[in-house]
Amino acid sequence: MRILLIGATGMIGRRVADEARRRGHEVTGVTRSGNEGTAKAEAADAAAIAGLAKGHDAAVLAIAPPRDGSEPTGPLLAGGRGALDGLRQAGVRRVVVVGGAGSLLVGPGARLVDTPEFPDLYKGEALAQGELLDVVRAEAGDLDWTYISPAAGIEPGERTGTFRLGGDELLTDADGKSFISAEDYAVALVDELEKSQAVGRRITVAY
Questions:
Q1: What does the pLDDT read at residue 40?
Q2: Going from the N-terminus, what domains does the chain have, and what CATH number goes with each?
Q3: pTM of this prediction?
Q4: DSSP for 41-52?
Q5: Coil, strand or helix: which one is 152?
């Protein structure tokens, strides 16, 4: 499979690239800087994304909001919409979106991001990622999309290949902890690229 990976040098993007390549897939990395052997393009530049996406079988959108204290939602949604438009222009229908955990439900109508325990430092980013999910659900019906939320906690760790998949609800273990390594998140994402078992919906992955 030829995969266009937009946001290839972030914590998750790097691991998705590694996981896909270890399975024999061809990965074209895209970043804003063009560093580390990646193609240079802004996700919001639909024409640039279209040019890079031609000839690919699928795409992964692994972009994040700005973390410099500026307003996060506008840039993230512009990047998401631009990338999706570029994929449409290139005829690439399959796209997996790296999402956030904040929009996962912890009770009837209650999101993780709205709980008192959710860190204020990450609230703006979480809300922006939730809005991107809304955009994908509302505007990407012509694409074969999947949005994958991680557990509440995600960081570099071990690749075990053992985890649970869920839907819109936050997954926790017997102790109430919600965690996934970035490596196992990447395993789940590439599994979904290969199997397409959750097209048109959001899933989550945790231990």
A1: 98
A2: 2-206 (3.40.50.720)
A3: 0.96
A4: --TT-HHHHHHH
A5: coil
